[in-house]
Every structure is written in C-alpha cells, then in structure tokens.
Amino acid sequence: MTTGAQTPSHPARPRRSRLRTFLPLGIAAWLVLEIWLLTLVAGASSGLVVFLVLLAGLVLGSVVIKRAGRRAFRKLSETLQQQQSGVMPAAARPNSEGNGLMMLGGLLLMIPGLISDAVGLLLLLPPVQKAVSRSAERTFERKLREADPGTLGGAFQQARMYRPDGKVVQGEVIRDEPGGGATEQQRPPLTH
C-alpha cells in the first residue's frame, strides 16, 4: 500500500499554441477565397484575362525579388569592403532596410491569386514596409522580454533523459567507451 501520490505513466503533452491550431485553417480559407476570386474574375471577363493577371504577377514578382536580392548583395559587399579596409560600417541606413519585406512582397506577387498579389503590392510601398518592420521589431522584443531568463523563448532546450517511471532528469548523457576508463574530461551537467 502506497501513501504518496503516484506519478502518471505518460507525461502530459503541452497544449498546442494558437498559431499551430489556427494556421492550417487560415491557409485553407485563404486558398478557397483565392480560387473563388479567380473564378469571379474569369466569369466577369475571360480565362485569358485571368491568365494574363497571373502571368503579370509572376513576372513582376520575379523582377522585385531580383532587385531586392541585388540590393542586399550590394549592401553586403559594401559592408565587407568597409570591414576589410578597417573602417567600421555605418549604422543601417533607412534606404537599405526592407530588402526582406521586398522579397516577401515579390514572393506574394509570384503566388497565383488576387489577395496575395494585393498584399505583395502593399509590401512594396515604403510606408507599409516601415510600419510592418516596426511592428515586427516590437513583437520580437516583447517575445524576448517574456521569455525565461537564460533561454531563447524555449527554442533551445536542455538535454533531457526520460526515465521509465515518467520523471524527467535534466542533464547530459555521457557514455563510457568500452574497455577503457574515462579518459576524456567529464563535463558538468547542463543547468538553467
């Protein structure tokens, strides 16, 4: 007869985040809406017009991605040249920001659909790029502040060993080589 509480044989699974729950549903709704809008445009005009709109989005998106990639590569080579010459690179200039958002806009233009084209075109506008980058930066900083100290938001977890009784033992697994003693230095266990 045991008097203590028993440990469950299977540890409880953590709850799914809202993003993992609703992202597939959002993507499915977006795809259905894109197809519906394309059929509306095809019904109002013709299939040739829809084809030309999709082709124009593909061409414009590839041009935007190529231009943003060249600009990013030029900025990288300038920074490397400044570092090699011993001059410290200047702080990020406002006109060099937004390469990632321009590439994302170009990618959205290349994806077939009218909504993705509209969002891609919006991301090409400098005021929208500044607003999106400020919002993303604030969100990133807030998530880092909310994260536990010493971790990067749970992205990197310590090594863990699960025992058969369900208990989790934090630490490091060190295997001894057969036939020889412990010739390597032993490392301390991982801690928070």
The strand count comes to 2
- Label the structural class: mainly alpha
The rounded Rg comes to 26 Å
Shape category = extended
Average pLDDT score: 77
**Number of H- or I-type helical stretches:** 5
Write the layout of secondary structure elements.
Layout: H1 18-44, H2 47-84, H3 99-110, H4 114-123, H5 126-146, E1 160-162, E2 168-170
Antiparallel strand pairs: 1-2
Walk me through what this model shows.
By secondary structure, the chain is mostly helical. The protein has a domain at 26-146. It is built from five helices and two strands. It has helices at 18-44, 47-84, 99-110, 114-123, 126-146; strands at 160-162, 168-170. A two-stranded antiparallel sheet has the order 1-2. Helix 2 (47-84) runs antiparallel to helix 3 and helix 3 (99-110) packs antiparallel against helix 4. The two termini are 37 Å apart.
Relevant terms:
extended; 5 helices; 192 residues; mainly alpha; two-stranded antiparallel sheet
In a few lines, what is going on in this structure?
With 192 residues, the chain is mainly alpha-helical. Helices cover 56% and strands 3% of the residues.
